[in-house]
Automatic annotation (TrEMBL):
It holds the Pfam family ABC_tran. Keywords: Amino-acid transport, ATP-binding, Nucleotide-binding, Transport. This is Amino acid/amide ABC transporter ATP-binding protein 2 (HAAT family). One of its GO terms (biological process) is L-amino acid transport. Residues 13-245 form the ABC transporter domain.
Length: 249
């Protein structure tokens, strides 16, 4: 295994026998995995596999059974507000920006759980450095921006939390290939410079594996394949079987 494969000693997030769903509909059936601090973990799989439900479970949006341990603390059952205060930031599919508010107002909303107000302005400048287009449009209404710009805004707003764990749900959805490449490059830079742990759910397996150190494939609510990103990329037959796509360019 690669040095990036988490063990009991270096795991930042440990998920054990996680079960979740919506009412009587069970979606996750005993998911277990761990993530090393400061790495990127890709969650791959076909539509309906439970990827979005997994991220919602990790940020406290839905009730779960099983264990979630974050940096040594059991956090399963905590509300989203509590998870945010622990440094878990969730960028949902569809971005979820507040269209009538300005770009800067959206970004400042991301810092609402924080108490270190003196540092918020510093972090705002840091987000503008990552996404210069947001600085240019800081006084514009978020709803008037392109899809790619709104996705950058959604990630920027999450960064205003100063997250220890960043959850990204289909960040490339609806974006052009050029914008998608740019976005994933920025996410990789954030991971490397800030040492922010990232879990990314993504249909574009090639891009996700390009920035990840480890990956898990979900199918019908269960992990059916795990390995380093390099191992997953190398196993074309298995990836085609589970993802229905070619991961190599």
């Amino acid at each position: 295994m690669s040095e990036h494969w988490p063990t009991a000693d270096n795991a930042f997030l440990t998920v054990t026998d996680l079960r979740a769903g919506y009412g009587a509909a069970k979606v996750l059936h005993g998911v277990s995995f761990s993530v090393e601090q400061g790495t990127v973990c890709a969650i791959l799989g076909p539509n309906g596999a439970g990827k979005t439900t997994l991220l919602r479970a990790l940020c406290g949006m839905i009730k779960v059974r099983g264990s979630l341990v974050l940096d040594g603390d059991e956090v399963s059952g905590r509300a989203p507000e509590s998870m945010a205060r622990l440094g878990v930031a969730h960028v949902p599919e569809g971005r979820g920006t507040f269209a009538p508010l300005t770009v800067e107002e959206n970004l400042r909303l991301g810092a609402y759980p924080r108490r270190d107000r003196a540092a918020v302005d510093t972090d705002l400048r840091r987000v503008y450095d990552y996404f210069p287009i947001l600085r240019d449009k800081q006084r514009d209404a978020a709803g008037g921006m392109s899809g790619g710009q709104q996705q950058m805004l959604a990630i920027g707003r999450a960064l205003m939390l100063r997250p220890r764990l960043l959850l990204l749900d289909e960040p490339s959805l609806g974006l052009s290939p050029l914008v998608t490449q740019e976005l994933f490059g920025i996410v990789a830079t954030i991971n490397q410079e800030e040492r922010t742990t990232v879990i990314v759910v993504e249909q574009n397996a090639h891009l996700a594996l390009g920035i990840a150190q480890q990956a898990h494939v979900l199918e019908t609510g269960r992990i059916v394949l795990s390995g380093t990103a390099a191992q997953i990329r190398a196993d074309e037959q298995v990836t085609r079987s589970y993802l229905g796509i070619q991961v190599k360019p």
